[in-house]
Amino acid sequence: MPILDARSLDFVSHSADQTQRLGVRLGELLSGRDLVCLSGELGAGKTTLMIGIARGWGALDQVSSPSFVLVNEYRRADAAVLYHMDAFRLDGPRAALESGLLDVFDGQGDLVVEWPERILAALPAERLWISLRWVEEQKRSLHFEAAGLRYEKLLADFKESAFGRSWMM
Q1: Which terminus of the chain is more solvent-facing, meaning fewer CB atoms within 10 Å of its CB: N or C?
Q2: Would 169 be classed as within a structural domain?
Q3: d(CA 29, CA 7)
Q4: Could you tell me the CATH number of the domain that includes residue 114?
């Protein structure tokens, strides 16, 4: 598990279960109005990671890919909302802005965006960006990149939660 610096992390997941467990650890740390971007080709594990994020966040609803509705909303017992956007079908940042899809982020909820590169210019500069890459049938490479102080702290907390304090040495 190479840790590049305070703003990044590389990790290879050896199974869908392990990818979901990483998502659970991350979801537990989201604190409202956080932005997590999941980038990667089809089959790279974005939705698998999202299932874990929603579970760790405390979603009461089952996670499904929002490909056809663009945004799914998941609720928690405390009425908090986790927005899950799929930008694959959007024709660029202008489409996201004109449709009002990014207005959800002005509310009091966390936002996870799949295919964020399609609307990059419309997204806030501060965020946690996770690039997923298919390696083998069960293996996925995950590269985490934090932009901004909030996300550097989120990534540090995630490293400690997922890997313990030993990552700091």
Answers
A1: C
A2: no
A3: 16
A4: 3.40.50.300
